Amino acid sequence: MKLHSCAAFIFAALIALGCDSKKDESSKHDDHADAAVQADDPTCAATHEHMGLHGDLSGFTASAAGAFHVKIEWNAPLKASSLENKATVTFVDEHAEALPLKLTGFKLFMPSMGHGSSKADQMVLTQDKDNANVWSVAGIYFSMGGAAGDWVVDVEAGGCGSSDKARVSIPVEVQ
Length: 175
Known about the structure:
- By secondary structure, this protein is an alpha+beta fold.
- The chain contains 2 helices and 9 strands, in the order ααβββββββββ.
- The protein has one domain (2-169).
- It has helices at 2-20, 42-47; strands spanning 61-62, 69-74, 85-92, 102-110, 115-116, 124-127, 134-140, 152-159, 162-169.
- The chain has a 5-stranded antiparallel beta sheet with strand order 1-2-3-7-6, with no helix packed on it. A 4-stranded antiparallel beta sheet has the order 5-4-8-9, with no helix packed on it.
- A hairpin with a 4-residue loop joins strand 4 and strand 5.
């Protein structure tokens, strides 16, 4: 339990530091978009105030550095060679509380074949008007079919001056 408390404290401290001193990283990373929340935004300060028990994170994937958990829900059966595929992306913190982040990357990849989508530039990322932690992604193009788990999505998101990545397996068949 002490390790959990220590880890939660360190995470909260990192978020607080990021919120207090937002750095301009766009000069280092051309593909890095500005955060969805500003450094002086109250949601940024509220992020590090949670120190309770973990919520239900079923179906969520933790990001590499633990900055967020992400879930991708597919809006219909997935079809290869079609731009009709759509998904809903939801971000939460380690307590399963809504985490307002900017979705900066949604990249399909098929590890067994070593390639991604040939029409990644067709994707449209739209933040929900009422829920800053929810995004819609339209125009998702799978260049070929595959069994459940053959395709993955590399998700990148940021907020409060930092960003993180997560690799999310697609648990359904792409027909």
